[in-house]
Write a structure and sequence with these properties.
InterPro entries: COMT-like, COMT_C, COMT_dimerisation, SAM-dependent_MTases_sf, WH-like_DNA-bd_sf, WH_DNA-bd_sf
Largest sheet: 7 strands, mixed
Helix content: 40-55%
Number of strands: 9
Mean pLDDT: 96
Shape: globular
Enzyme class: transferase
Number of helices: 16
Protein name: Acetylserotonin O-methyltransferase
Radius of gyration: 22 Å
CATH topology of the largest domain: Rossmann fold
Strand content: 15-25%
Function: Catalyzes the transfer of a methyl group onto N-acetylserotonin, producing melatonin (N-acetyl-5-methoxytryptamine).
CATH architecture of the largest domain: 3-Layer(aba) Sandwich
Bound molecules: S-adenosylmethionine
Number of domains: 2
Distance between the termini: 60 Å
Strand order of the largest sheet: 5-4-3-6-7-9-8
GO molecular function: acetylserotonin O-methyltransferase activity; protein dimerization activity
C-alpha cells in the first residue's frame, strides 16, 4: 500500500531462525516433552521437577506454545497447565518409534558447533573439525567418530530419518528383482530393515567400518532380523561383497567427485551383470534454486565433510563415468530422493 514502511519480515525471520532451533534444543535437553508425556503440568511443578528456575521455565514453555510444540490451558483455579501437542508426542519423546530426539541432540551438540565456523568453511572451502573440536580431519570419519560416544550419536542421527521417510526411498523403484543387496555404508541398518520389509525375497548385507558394524550389531539390529547380515571393511581399500544391488544412501554426499567415481567404479566391478546401484540423496534442483533444505544440507556438507549435495545431472555424470547405464531418477517430494542405475 502507498506510504507503508517497508517491513523486512523474511530477513527478521532468518536472522532469528537460530533462536527457534535453540529453543527446541533446550526444551529437549531439559526433558520438557518427556516430563509432559501423558500428563499436564504447571510451570512451577515443571520447574521443580526439572531443576529449573520458575521464571526461566515459564518463558521456555510459553515460547514452545507459540511454536505449537505445547498447548496451554488455564484450570478452574487460574493455573496455566502445559501439555504436549500430538506432534511433540510423536516426534519429541525418546521412546516414540518416530523420535527425533537423538537427531536434535546431534544438531545441538555437534552440527550447531560446526556452523559457528560457517564463514571460515566458505572462505577455506573445507570442513571445520579442527576449529570446532580440535581434531584433524585428514581422515574424515576418524574426525567424525572422534570418540565412541560421538559415533553412537551419529549413528542415532542416521537411524532416525529412515523411520520417517525410509519407505519412500526404498520403494521408489521395484527392487524385487535384486535379491542380494549390499547397503554400503549401511550404518545402523535402518534402511536395510525397510528394505527387507518392503522386499520379502531380499537379503541385505550391511557393509561398514569395523567399529560401526560392531555397534550396529550390538545396539541397532537384532538377531531376529535374519535377512540382514554384516560385513566389516573400508570401501575404498577392501574388497566389496558381491551383490545384485548396492544401496548408497547419503554416501556420495560425503565425498568429492573424484572419490565418488572411484567408489562407483569399484562397485561396478563387484556388481553382478544385470545388477545395479541405488543412490539415495537429497537432490538439488537443476537450476540450483532449491530445495532450501537440500541447499542448507550442502552447506552442512561443506562444514562437516569433503562432499556436497548434488543435482540429478551431477549423479548421472558420476554414474556414467563409472560405467553405469539406464539411469532413472525418482523425486519423492520429501527430503531424500532415489536414483537407480544398472550395470
Ligand atoms: C552419512 S553416513 C550414511 C549412513 C547410512 N547409509 C544412512 O543413510 O543412514 C555414511 C556412512 O558411511 C560409512 N563409511 C564411511 N567411510 C567408510 C569407508 N571407508 N568404508 C565403509 N563405510 C564407510 C560411515 O561409517 C557411515 O555409516
Amino acid at each position: 500500500m502507498a506510504g507503508e514502511e517497508p517491513y523486512p519480515r523474511k530477513i527478521l525471520q532468518y536472522m532469528e531462525g537460530f533462536l527457534v532451533s535453540k529453543t527446541l534444543f533446550c526444551a529437549c535437553e531439559l526433558g520438557v516433552f518427556e516430563h509432559l508425556q501423558g500428563s499436564q503440568s504447571s510451570a512451577s511443578d515443571l520447574a521443580l521437577a526439572l531443576g529449573c528456575s520458575e521464571d526461566g521455565i515459564e518463558r521456555l514453555l510459553n515460547t514452545c506454545v507459540s511454536l505449537e510444540l505445547l498447548t496451554a490451558n488455564t484450570d478452574a483455579h487460574g493455573t496455566v497447565l502445559y501439555s504436549n501437542t500430538e506432534m511433540s508426542s510423536m516426534f519429541l519423546i525418546k521412546s516414540s518409534p518416530r523420535s527425533l530426539c537423538q537427531s536434535i541432540e546431534y544438531s545441538s551438540r555437534t552440527i550447531y558447533l560446526c556452523w559457528h565456523y560457517l564463514s571460515d568453511a566458505v572462505r577455506e572451502g573445507k570442513n571445520q573439525y579442527e576449529k570446532a573440536f580440535g581434531v584433524n580431519s585428514k581422515d574424515l570419519f576418524e574426525a567424525m567418530y572422534r570418540s565412541d560416544e560421538e559415533m553412537v550419536k551419529f549413528m542415532h542421527l542416521m537411524n532416525s530419518i529412515w523411520n520417517i521417510c525410509g519407505r519412500d526411498v526404498i520403494t521408489a523403484f521395484d527392487l524385487s528383482p535384486f535379491r542380494c543387496i549390499c547397503d554400503l555404508g549401511g550404518c545402523s541398518g535402518a534402511l536395510a530393515k525397510q528394505c527387507v520389509s518392503a522386499f520379502p525375497e531380499s537379503t541385505v548385507t550391511i557393509f561398514d567400518l569395523p567399529k560401526v558394524v560392531r555397534t550396529s550389531q550390538q545396539h541397532f539390529v537384532s538377531n531376529q532380523d535374519e535377512r540382514i547380515c554384516f560385513c566389516e571393511g573400508d570401501c575404498f581399500k577392501d574388497e566389496l561383497p558381491q551383490a545384485d544391488l548396492y544401496v548408497l544412501a547419503r554416501i556420495l554426499h560425503d565425498w568429492t567427485d573424484q572419490r565418488s567415481v572411484e567408489l562407483l567404479a569399484k562397485i561396478y566391478q563387484s556388481c553382478r551383470p544385470g545388477g545395479g546401484v541405488l543412490l539415495v540423496e537429497a537432490l538439488l534442483y537443476e537450476d540450483n534454486s532449491g530445495p532450501l533444505t537440500a541447499q542448507l544440507y550442502s552447506l552442512n556438507m561443506l562444514v562437516q565433510t569433503e562432499g556436497r549435495e548434488r543435482k540429478a545431472s551431477d549423479f548421472s555424470r558420476l554414474l556414467s563415468a563409472a560405467g553405469f547405464t539406464h539411469i532413472q531418477i525418482h523425486n519423492t517430494g520429501k527430503i531424500y530422493d532415489a536414483i537407480l542405475a544398472l550395470k
